Amino acid sequence: MNLILFGPPGVGKGTQGARLANDFDMAHLAMGDILRAAVRDETPAGLEAKQYMDAGQLVPDAVVVAMIEETIMAGNGHDFLLDGFPRNVSQAEALDEMLARHSLKIGRIVFMDAPKESLLKRLCGRLICRACGFGFHRQYSPPLKSGCCDRCGGELYQRDDDREDVIANRLEVYHEQTAPLLDFYRHREGFTKIDAGGEMDAVYAALKEAVNG
Ligand code: AMP
Hints:
It is a single chain. The chain is of the alpha/beta class. It has a domain at 3-26 and 79-115 and 171-212: P-loop containing nucleotide triphosphate hydrolases (Rossmann fold). Helix content is 48%, strand content 15%. A 5-stranded parallel β-sheet has the order 2-3-1-4-8, with helices on both faces. A 3-stranded antiparallel β-sheet has the order 6-5-7. The mean pLDDT is 95. Adenosine monophosphate is lined by residues 9, 31-32, 35, 52-53, 56-59, 64, 84-87, 91, 161, 170.
């Protein structure tokens, strides 16, 4: 089954999505990770995307739609979980068109939500491993050794767009452009909303139930 996970920045899509994709044998296609890899590799799309990402704005639809289609197709029919795509209604329409063209279907659409205060706290303290991408939090899930990934020993860093001024932009962009997706998807078969404001394991249990349900 293919799945869409959406919700505000900091709600835990990346962390929970990775765990879910692993447990249900789906490819975890995180649009932000795909874009960061393109920026790091200095591809033409990455060079174009960087300025938008640094400012907390959405990268133009044409760029992300082409990238996600290429990534889905590279999976050769393996089930996938979309995390961070679509992020506005025109991307959702492009996704519908693309899925129909490739005879693919989405089985579940899960909307994760949490209060703004917890999103801010999660984003401000977030640390990511440069080597394996695993996420930590200064307060809620600190690494055993400061600055060092528990899993692989890689260096931990704070994303450039996890600075307070950029976070404010990202949340505004979310409310203006991504939140309308809720009306776009809420009546679709397989749609579920979960409360993602609680503890990590409780949120994961709710997510799993939504996927199994
Ligand atoms: P994320 O890692 O999901 O928080 O995404 C980081 C940044 O990548 C966002 O703030 C946007 O600049 C960009 N981005 C990620 N997904 C999309 C998307 N679907 N459409 C446009 N820009 C995106």
